[in-house]
UniProtKB/TrEMBL annotation:
InterPro entries, per database record: Methyltransf_16, SAM-dependent_MTases_sf
UniProt EC number: 2.1.1.85
UniProt keyword annotations, A-Z: Cytoplasm, Methyltransferase, Nucleus, S-adenosyl-L-methionine, Transferase
Sample GO molecular function, one term: protein-L-histidine N-tele-methyltransferase activity
GO biological process: methylation
Organism: Rhizopogon vesiculosus
Keyword Cytoplasm: yes
Keyword S-adenosyl-L-methionine attached: yes
Subcellular locations according to the entry: Cytoplasm; Nucleus
Family that this chain belongs to: Belongs to the methyltransferase superfamily. METTL18 family.
Protein name: protein-histidine N-methyltransferase
Gene Ontology terms: cellular component: cytoplasm; nucleus
Length: 360
């Protein structure tokens, strides 16, 4: 089986089918995938997701290399803990003789035992943290003084564990509250990824930030700092939502295929569009480009200063056809195509880049 061999954590085998494609909107799926219908655009309610969290989640720190040579440690939910939640939920709610009735749960169960597998139109790798997401967070740190995200609209496409957006939230929650209203939206193909990883990671980032200091001090039984576990209580959920209001942060979560993303329902275009490790399949690159181009916030696409679109990726994804060259070619081949500039790169080992995309 093909293996990427570049994920941050070593947890299970990685496999991927070999695909061909071009820069048209046509799909070239293997025969076994022809009957799979892509998930449609859906919004996940934050309140419902908070209510569905277990009473306790465990986490581990992940280190983001920063531009100044230092490191930033952010909490990330443990993968085994997310697995346990999914197994427990289905064991409690489903008759063993029945198939899961919930489409998202059924889909999640398909990749539960091998969560790093990439199954087109079923699971797109969102439970894992991939290297380029750390690169993108590090680059955001390097331009922090030039691009103030507060008061802006941010969209992370194919967010998964959402490291770049967690970095942004960390910066906001570590600063004094602002009157500026910041909208941060998360998109992933799998709703189960948003429920199991993205939203818990957002809560963890808030909990370990300055914004949650008052709440941490008020806890009757502070958690054991060596246990790296967080009790999800009603008080915590309430404190988290109050902090969002205090800091002017508006969070929304969307699942489904890029083809179906509804920009009108999401509230319009964005000032900052982020995506990492999403160009590994040639057949999905046109849909990605169409989505991120539409999401850029310039009323006139020649007004390039009104948005920033950043794509982080491996230079080459062996065996699956995607990579930087194919992405750049597809951007240029669009009607009134755009330009791609490399703003950060790693040339040793597995080559990686962060690219800025501008539309003509």
């Amino acid at each position: 089986m093909f293996k990427f061999n570049f994920d941050v954590e070593d947890d299970g085998e990685q496999s991927m089918v070999s695909l061909d494609g071009n820069c048209t909107a046509q799909n070239h799926r293997p025969a076994s995938a022809q009957a799979v219908v892509p998930d449609a655009f859906t919004e996940l309610s934050l309140a419902d997701a908070l209510d569905s969290l277990p009473s306790k989640i465990s986490y581990s720190p992940i280190t983001i290399p920063l531009a100044n040579g230092g490191n930033l440690s952010l909490p990330r939910r443990d993968l085994f803990d997310a697995r346990f939640q999914l197994i427990s939920h289905n064991a409690d709610d489903l008759d063993p003789s029945e198939q899961p009735s919930n489409a998202h749960a059924q889909s999640a169960l398909q990749f539960l035992n091998a969560p790093s597998d990439l199954v087109p139109l079923v699971y797109e790798g969102g439970l894992k943290t991939w290297e380029c997401s750390l690169d993108l967070a590090g680059y955001l740190d390097s331009i922090g003084s030039q691009f103030d995200v507060r008061g802006k609209r941010v969209l992370e496409v194919g967010c998964g564990t959402s490291i770049p957006s967690l970095y942004i939230l960390h910066r906001i929650f570590s600063s004094p509250p602002s009157q500026n209203q910041t909208h941060i939206h998360f998109q992933d193909y799998n709703a189960s990824v948003l429920e199991l990883m993205t939203i818990p990671n957002v809560i963890l980032t808030w909990y370990l930030s300055g914004a949650a200091e008052t709440y941490r001090m008020s806890e009757e039984e502070p958690p054991d700092s060596t246990a790296l576990e967080l009790n999800i209580s009603e008080n915590l959920r309430d404190a988290f939502q109050r902090s969002l209001m205090t800091y002017g942060v508006h969070l929304r979560f969307f699942s489904g295929s890029w083809d179906t993303f509804d920009l009108q329902k999401s509230g319009g275009r964005y000032n900052l569009v982020l995506t990492s490790e999403t160009i590994y399949r040639m057949e999905s690159i046109p849909s990605l480009i169409a989505m991120i181009r539409g999401a850029c916030s310039a009323k006139d696409l020649t007004d390039i200063d009104s948005y920033l679109c950043l794509v982080a990726a491996k230079v080459l994804y062996f065996g699956v056809g995607g990579g930087v060259a194919e992405f750049v070619r597809c951007v240029r081949d669009q009607d009134e195509g755009g330009t791609v500039e490399t703003v950060w790169e790693r040339t040793s080992g597995v080559e990686r880049r962060v690219m800025s995309v501008r539309w003509k």
